[in-house]
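Entry:
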Amino acid sequence: MKRDNVNYLLVGSFVLLMAAMLFYALYRITGHSKEGDIYFTHFPNVAGIKEGTVVTYEGFEVGNVAQISPLTRDNHTTYRITLNLRAPVRIPVDSRAVIATPGLLSAPVVEIKEGHSRDIVAIGEDIPGSLRVDLMETVAALAADLGKITETSIKPMLAQINQNVSPALADMRSMMERINRTAGRIDALFNDENVKHWGRLLQNADGASANALKLSTDLSGVRYEVEALIKDSRGIVSSSGKDLKDALRRVDATLYQLEAAGRNLNEFSRTIRENPAALLQSRPPTDAAGATQ
């Protein structure tokens, strides 16, 4: 029984020792380990800070908030903040104390912004406090400004762009429809059957060109014959009767050839005038006698 009491005493002592160490660690963490230099500042709003809140000097931890006391000035409530600075720092008189939030998930701290004056704030004096810059309020104000810009600038600009672009899109769609119709007509024009017709047209055109060349050659021959006839006619007066008969026969043959050539030319011209599609025929036209030209 005595042995069990000793064990209970040892376990209880160990628990009390661990609890004391825990309280000591918490005391050290909260910054109440020792007294430092006391300074004061004032804020109209102390939301987010309390006794034990960390105090930093240009981001370096120098102490903690020792006490928060409300004061009434000119029917307005302000708060006197007692700063316990354990680290020795020299604070210029134009320095400012603000409530800052280092990050979105960080606890607020009292940040002392260093000034540029050569005069130093004495221990126990006030450090001027500035209005708190609330991150959420800043974000909300930024969102409000963005909303106002959207309503007054971006939406009218988008409406104007839409007003100007819509007719252009309509014109583009109309142009694409015309292009599609034209492409369909071109495809119909150059289908397989029409390609064959174009081939026959080119063949008939070649034949017509050959016929025209032959006709031109015949006309040239007739011209030469006429020139020869003119030359021969000059000697008719001094020629004999036999020569006159020979010359007349030659004239008669020449006139017959000229008449045949003229008849062929007239028939070719009449056929083209009456039926221009004759160029698309697979067979060349025939003359009145049924002979192939």
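The two ends are 148 Å apart (CA to CA).
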